[in-house]
Write a structure and sequence with these properties.
Shape: elongated
Number of strands: 14
Helix content: 25-40%
Distance between the termini: 68 Å
Strand order of the largest sheet: 10-9-8-11-12-14-13
CATH superfamily of the largest domain: Vaccinia Virus protein VP39
CATH class of the largest domain: Alpha Beta
Structural class: alpha/beta
C-alpha cells in the first residue's frame, strides 16, 4: 500500500485504521508505505506514533520539502517489498473495503494493472462538483485518444499495479501529473489494464481537497508530453532500446524473412524479449519462447496467453541446469542478438547444440564489427561485437558445422556508428527509426549491393547427423 500524505491531520488516523482493518484476499499480507510530503499541520507527529504502534506493517518516510503526490509515490515505490502495489490517498474519499475488488483481476492472472473507476457503477458515489467531473471526463477522453484505451476514469487514485511493472517505470511527475503519466506508460508497455467500479465519497475544497484547475492544465501538457516521449523504462533496466525496436515492424519482418528458410517445426527461441520475432515465426507445431528477464517473461506470457502452441519459459543460456531436460527436443534454435551479452559463450553454444536433434539448425545473429562498439552497445550490455571468423570458429569448437554465414543490414552501419560512436547516444531517435523502418523495402533491395560488412552477421550452424545417417542422407 502506497500512501502519499500532506497535511491530513484530521483524517490520517482514520484512513490508516480503515486500511489496516480492510479485508484482503486469503494469503495476502499488508504493508503500508507512508510518505509524509513535509506536512506542516502536525500530521508528522501523528504518523510517527502510528509507525511506532504498527511497526510490523507500517514503513514511514518524510520529505524535507514539499514536492507533490508524484514525488511521494516515487519515494514509496523505492521501498516496496511486496508483489502488488495499491495507491491510497490519505483522505477519506476512497474506501479500502474495495481492495478485494481491485485485487481480483491481478490475483486471477488476467491483469497487470487495475483502475478503480469512480464513474462506473459502484455501491455509492457522493454527488459534488459538475465542472470538476466535466474536466475529469475531458482529461480521461484526451488520455484515451493518445493511448488508444477506453478508460472511464484515468484520474482515479485507486490504481493496483504489479510491483515489477511499477518499479521498472520511471515516474517523472512530481504532482498530480502522475495519473496521466502512468496511464500513458502502462499503455505503451502493452499492460493488460482492467477497470472495476469503486465507491467514492469525494470531499469539498473546504474539507481539504487539494487538486486545482491549474493541475488540470498541467495534466493536458503531461498527456501530450508522454504521448510523444517513450520514457517507459527506468534506465537501469535497459529496456528502452528494445521497446523502440519493437516498433520497427518492417525491419523485424525483414530479419524474420532472412532466417525463415532454416526454421523448422519444433523451435526454441533464446532471448525472445518482447516477442518481436516470435510473432513472425508462428504458427509452428511447438514453439518455446524464452528469456531470463522477469519483465519480458511476464510480457510474453500475457501476449501469447491464448496460443497453446507457444510455451514461455525462463532459460539462462549459460546454465546447463535450465537445459537439462531439453536434450535433442528441437529441430531449430533461434538465438538473435543474445550471444553478444553472454560472458561464457562456449557454454552457451554447447547448450544450444545439446538442445538440437541431429541435423537441426542453430540460427545465430550477433552484432558485427568491434570497431562499431560504442554507447549503444554499452547500454545494451554487449560483451563484444563479433567478426565472421570469430563466430564461425566458436560454433565449430562447439561441434557445429557451418552451413552459411550471412551479412545483414549493411545500411544500418552508418546510423549505428553516428549514434553510438560519434554522438554517444543511449537511445535511438524515434524519428530516425520511423524513417529507417519506412524505407525497409529499399534496404532489402540494396543491402547486398553495399560493399562493406553488415551491422550484424548471421550464422546458420547445423548439428551433424550420426555418421551412418549422414552417409545415407548423402547417398539419397
Amino acid at each position: 500500500m502506497l500512501m502519499p500524505v500532506y497535511n491530513e491531520h484530521y483524517t490520517i488516523e482514520s484512513i490508516v485504521a480503515r486500511v489496516l482493518s480492510a479485508p484482503l484476499p486469503e494469503g495476502l499480507a499488508l504493508e503500508i508505505i507512508i510518505v509524509d510530503d513535509c506536512s506542516t499541520d502536525g500530521t508528522e507527529q501523528i504518523l510517527q506514533q502510528i509507525a511506532q504502534d504498527h511497526a510490523q506493517q507500517v514503513v514511514l518516510r518524510h520529505h524535507s520539502v514539499n514536492k507533490g503526490k508524484g514525488a511521494a509515490i516515487r519515494t514509496a515505490v523505492g521501498l516496496v517489498t511486496g508483489d502488488i502495489c495499491v495507491i491510497q490517498d490519505a483522505d477519506l474519499e476512497y474506501d479500502p473495503r474495495d481492495y478485494q475488488r481491485l485485487l481480483a483481476p491481478l490475483l486471477s492472472g488476467d491483469a497487470d494493472v487495475v483502475y478503480g473507476s469512480r464513474f462506473a457503477s459502484g455501491e455509492y458515489r457522493r454527488v459534488l462538483f459538475f465542472w470538476h467531473s466535466v474536466m475529469n471526463r475531458f482529461l480521461t477522453t484526451l488520455s484515451n485518444i493518445t493511448t488508444d484505451l477506453n478508460l472511464t476514469d484515468m484520474e482515479t487514485c485507486y490504481k493496483a499495479v504489479k510491483t515489477s511493472i511499477l518499479k521498472s517505470t520511471p515516474i517523472r511527475s512530481d504532482r498530480f501529473g502522475i495519473e496521466p503519466e502512468l496511464t500513458a506508460k502502462f499503455a505503451k508497455r502493452n499492460c493488460r489494464i482492467f477497470e472495476v467500479p469503486i465507491s467514492y465519497a469525494g470531499r469539498t475544497y473546504d474539507e481539504g481537497k487539494k487538486i486545482t484547475w491549474w493541475d488540470g492544465v498541467l495534466a493536458i501538457f503531461t498527456i501530450f508530453h508522454f504521448w510523444i516521449v517513450d520514457d517507459i523504462y527506468n534506465e537501469r533496466y535497459g529496456h528502452n532500446i528494445l521497446h523502440s525496436l519493437s516498433k520497427t515492424h518492417r525491419f523485424n519482418a525483414w530479419m524474420a524473412d532472412t532466417v525463415r528458410p532454416w526454421v523448422g517445426d519444433r523451435v526454441l527461441e533464446i532471448g525472445s524479449g518482447l516477442g518481436n520475432l516470435t510473432s513472425k515465426m508462428v504458427p509452428r507445431a511447438s514453439y518455446v519462447a524464452s528469456d531470463i528477464d522477469p519483465l519480458y517473461l511476464d510480457y510474453l506470457s500475457n501476449r501469447f496467453a491464448n496460443d497453446p502452441r507457444i510455451d514461455v519459459q525462463k532459460l539462462d543460456l549459460e546454465d546447463t541446469t535450465d537445459f537439462g531436460e531439453l536434450g535433442e527436443c528441437f529441430d531449430t534454435v533461434i538465438c538473435l542478438n543474445v550471444l553478444e551479452h553472454v560472458p561464457d559463450r562456449d557454454q552457451a553454444l554447447r547448450n544450444m547444440y545439446d538442445a538440437l536433434e541431429p541435423g537441426g539448425h542453430a540460427i545465430i545473429l550477433v552484432p558485427q564489427g568491434q570497431w562499431l562498439f560504442g554507447s549503444l552497445d554499452r547500454v545494451l550490455d554487449h560483451v563484444m561485437r563479433y567478426s565472421r571468423g570469430e563466430l564461425s570458429r566458436a560454433c565449430k569448437a562447439s561441434g557445429f558445422e557451418i552451413e552459411k554465414l550471412l551479412s545483414f543490414n549493411r545500411i544500418g552501419v552508418l546510423p549505428w556508428f553516428l549514434n553510438g560512436r560519434i554522438f554517444r547516444k543511449k537511445q535511438f531517435d524515434k524519428l530516425q527509426l520511423k524513417i529507417f523502418d519506412s524505407l525497409v523495402w529499399l534496404w532489402r533491395i540494396v543491402d547486398r549491393l553495399i560493399p562493406f560488412p553488415g551491422l550484424s552477421v548471421i550464422c546458420i550452424a547445423r548439428k551433424p547427423l550420426p555418421p551412418d545417417e549422414d552417409t545415407a542422407s548423402s547417398a539419397n
